[in-house]
Amino acid sequence: MRDLRQLLIHRHRLVQIRTRVKNGLQHLAMNRGMQKKSKLWSAAGQRAFLELPLPGWAGCRRQDLLALLAKLDEQIRPLDAAVEKAAFAHEQARLLMTQPGVGAITALAFVVTIGAADRFGRGKQVSSYLGLIPREHSSSGQQRLGAISKQGNSFMRLLLVEAAQTAVRLDEGLRKKYQQRCHSKAKGVAKVAAARKLAVRLYWMLRTNTPYPEIVHNESSSRCPMAGAS
């Protein structure tokens, strides 16, 4: 498990560097009036970017960053394959991947982060462990909820928020809760709430060894301990 954790962390660090490199290339393009956003990484976008006149050190920076991006892609590719292989070989990770929006990276990271699910008594403890519980400020009998505590594993929180953004498009129950919160809360708050709901569900899937279709059925019939959990 420690070795799998090192694999996930190593990949994550390289992806962070790649993101910074891509941001640098985006800034170069935008400074010359080219605003392609994600289309910059398409074949047509790359051709247009290479044809963009960038004299002096700007051109040198473009060349070096593109070379660095290609090298990072080359390094990350086998790590992606290794994570996917490890996830499909792990029974608990395969179980979590039955949840729409949860891929090999999130599933494997959740398993190695949580460890034995039965060490947590309930879903709220998992949310607290991951730093997804809002801080509470109470005075004069009034309860106010602030930002999340951000304690625990920041990498796991990031993965859960990213997975939740996909899950709310594919999972009707999560989508309804997310849309309801978007009407009354900031979008960022709704995203974190969706990540918290997803984390609690993944915990119960592990705790009860129950795949996605069955856990959703249990939730809808109020036979699951997490039914109604936020």
3D architecture notes:
By secondary structure, this protein is mainly alpha-helical. It has two domains: 2-89, no CATH class; 91-220, no CATH class. It is 69% helix and 6% strand. It contains ten helices and two strands. It has helices spanning 2-31, 43-51, 56-89, 91-96, 104-114, 123-129, 154-170, 172-184, 187-208, 212-220; strands at residues 134-139, 142-148. Strands 1-2 form a two-stranded antiparallel ribbon. A hairpin with a 2-residue loop joins strand 1 (134-139) and strand 2. Helix 1 packs across helix 5 (104-114) and helix 7 packs across helix 8 (172-184). Residues 136-146 have low confidence and may be disordered.
What is the fold's blueprint, element by element?
Blueprint: H1 2-31, H2 43-51, H3 56-89, H4 91-96, H5 104-114, H6 123-129, E1 134-139, E2 142-148, H7 154-170, H8 172-184, H9 187-208, H10 212-220
Antiparallel strand pairs: 1-2
Quick gist of this model?
The protein has 230 residues and is mainly alpha-helical. The protein has helices at 2-31, 43-51, 56-89, 91-96, 104-114, 123-129, 154-170, 172-184, 187-208, 212-220, and strands spanning 134-139, 142-148.
List keywords for this structure.
single chain; 2 domains; mainly alpha; 230 residues; 2 strands
Instruction: Note the gap between the termini.
Output: 29 Å
**Arrangement of strands in the largest sheet:** 1-2
Number of domains: 2
Shape: elongated
Low-pLDDT windows of residues: 136-146
Percentage of residues in DSSP E strands: 5-15%
Structural class: mainly alpha
Mean pLDDT: 88
- Tally the helices: 10
Helix/strand order, N-terminal first? HHHHHHEEHHHH
Question: Main β-sheet, in a few words?
Answer: 2 strands, antiparallel
User: Percentage of helical residues?
Assistant: 55-70%
The radius of gyration over CA amounts to: 21 Å
Number of strands: 2
